[in-house]
């Protein structure tokens, strides 16, 4: 029987790649949402949902990753880097990657090219100053990015993005009709913890309300999807938010999922940077 499906060759004959990613948004997403309400700057409770991420969740997540010796990528708005320098240094020193995620989680689709560039560069300066290096990876904050964003990131020397949705293998981004060495590793909505669990009563999140999925159900979804990625030898990008997945019970679920993945010997757990470098060199 001929094989019509071209299997990806991963390093060390691994069968599939796993990119554990955390969007360390802190309160930026809530502050941005509150701004559309009169007096929204006083909505302190929703801000505190975001503060839970850097304050309580990240240290536990770092411990969990260390327990299983797993690398991860933390996409962090530069404002959160500025406000939590010790934590971000700790993430970096633990061997994880810190990626670009705007200054305060801006919607790039609403911004001009120059405005986007200013945010990217300002944030890179903060990364350089606090972590000692610039980000090489980018994940678009809320909403979409604009038609210029990929070209801008490529021009500014970024290696990769993890922002789109349309593939389960990494790929070279086409910019202005040219295939480039700017790599994309697309996450998925169904592999995003915020879509499963993100909730606020007022301002309503999600808008029509009704979400906070059962933990077992989410575990089964993530596991089933991982099993499929493993079967087909793909690049599994799990998109998590410390403020969401870092709650005590959900962390037990994440640990169970990590154990399931680690029960296979042939998984390549890697940062976004490592996967993108591999793809650039081999595909
Ligand atoms: Zn985010």
TrEMBL record:
An example molecular function term from Gene Ontology annotations: hydrolase activity, acting on carbon-nitrogen (but not peptide) bonds
Superkingdom, natural source: Bacteria
Gene3D superfamilies: Glycoside hydrolase/deacetylase
Domain NodB homology: 43-270
GO biological process, one term: carbohydrate metabolic process
Segments crossing the lipid bilayer: none
CDD domains: CE4_HpPgdA_like
Name the record gives this protein: Peptidoglycan/xylan/chitin deacetylase, PgdA/CDA1 family
UniProt organism field: Desulforamulus aeronauticus DSM 10349
């Amino acid at each position: 029987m001929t094989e019509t499906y071209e299997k990806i060759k991963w390093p060390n004959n691994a069968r599939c790649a796993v990119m554990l990613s955390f969007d360390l948004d802190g309160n930026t997403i809530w502050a941005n949402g509150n701004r559309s309400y009169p007096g929204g700057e006083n909505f302190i409770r929703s801000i505190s949902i975001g503060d839970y991420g850097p304050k309580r969740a990240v240290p536990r997540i770092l411990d969990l990753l260390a327990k299983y010796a797993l690398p991860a990528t933390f996409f962090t708005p530069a404002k959160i880097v500025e406000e939590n320098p010790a934590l971000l240094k700790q993430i970096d020193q633990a061997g994880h990657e810190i990626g670009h995620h705007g200054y305060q989680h801006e919607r790039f689709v609403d911004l001009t090219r120059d405005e986007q560039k200013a945010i990217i560069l300002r944030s890179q300066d903060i990364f350089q100053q606090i972590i000692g290096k610039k980000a090489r990876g980018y994940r678009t904050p809320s909403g979409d990015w604009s038609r210029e964003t990929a070209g801008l990131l490529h021009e500014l020397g970024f290696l990769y993005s993890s922002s789109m949705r349309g593939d389960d293998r990494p790929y070279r981004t086409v910019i202005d009709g040219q295939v480039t060495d700017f790599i994309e590793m697309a996450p998925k909505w169904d592999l995003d913890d915020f879509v499963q669990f993100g909730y606020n009563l007022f301002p309503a999140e999600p808008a029509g309300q009704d979400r906070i999925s059962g933990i077992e159900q989410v575990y089964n979804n993530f596991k089933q999807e991982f099993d499929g990625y493993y079967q087909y030898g793909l690049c599994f990008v799990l998109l998590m938010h410390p403020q969401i997945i870092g709650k005590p019970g959900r962390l037990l679920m994440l640990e169970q999922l990590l154990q399931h993945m680690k029960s296979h010997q042939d998984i390549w757990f890697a940062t976004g940077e490592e996967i993108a470098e591999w793809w650039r060199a081999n595909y």
